[in-house]
Design a protein that fits this description.
Strand content: under 5%
Protein name: Odorant receptor 19
Main location: membrane
Number of helices: 4
Membrane topology: Multi-pass membrane protein
Mean pLDDT: 86
Helix content: over 70%
Number of strands: 2
Structural class: mainly alpha
Subcellular location: Cell membrane
Distance between the termini: 21 Å
Largest sheet: 2 strands, antiparallel
Organism: Apriona germarii (Mulberry longhorn beetle)
Low-confidence stretches: none
C-alpha cells in the first residue's frame, strides 16, 4: 500500500508543480512494479503448465518407477508457486491493478484536500 501512496503523491506532484519530473518518477515506479508483477505472474503460469506438459507426455509407457514419479509431479504441480508480497498475497496482475486503483484513490483524495 506504500507503493500506492507514493504513486498518489507523485500524481499530485504532476498536477500541482513539476509535471516533467513527476512523470519521469511515476513511469519509473510503475515500470518497476509492473516488471515485478509480470515476473510473479509468469512464475505462476509456468508452474501451472507443468501439470499439462507432464500429463500430455507419454509417461504411461514408462516403467513403474517413472509412473510413480510422474504421479508425484502431477500432485505437486496442482499448487502453483508464486512470488510473494507478504501482506497482500502474490505478485501478479491483479495486485498491480489493485495498486493502480488505490493510487488513483489517493490521488483524488490529495487533489481534493490541496
Amino acid at each position: 500500500m506504500t507503493c500506492a501512496l507514493i504513486f498518489g503523491c507523485i500524481g499530485n506532484l504532476i498536477l500541482k508543480s513539476k509535471p516533467l519530473a513527476g512523470i519521469c518518477y511515476l513511469m519509473g515506479y510503475i515500470t518497476a512494479l509492473f516488471l515485478l508483477c509480470h515476473g510473479g505472474q509468469r512464475i505462476t503460469d509456468e508452474t501451472l503448465s507443468v501439470a499439462d506438459a507432464v500429463y500430455n507426455s507419454r509417461w504411461y509407457h514408462g516403467d513403474a518407477q517413472i509412473m510413480r514419479d510422474m504421479i508425484i509431479i502431477l500432485a505437486r504441480s496442482q499448487r502453483p508457486a508464486s512470488l510473494g508480497a507478504l501482506p497482500l498475497g502474490a505478485m501478479n496482475y491483479s495486485l498491480f491493478l489493485m495498486i493502480i486503483k488505490t493510487s488513483y484513490s489517493y490521488l483524488t483524495l490529495l487533489n481534493q484536500n490541496t
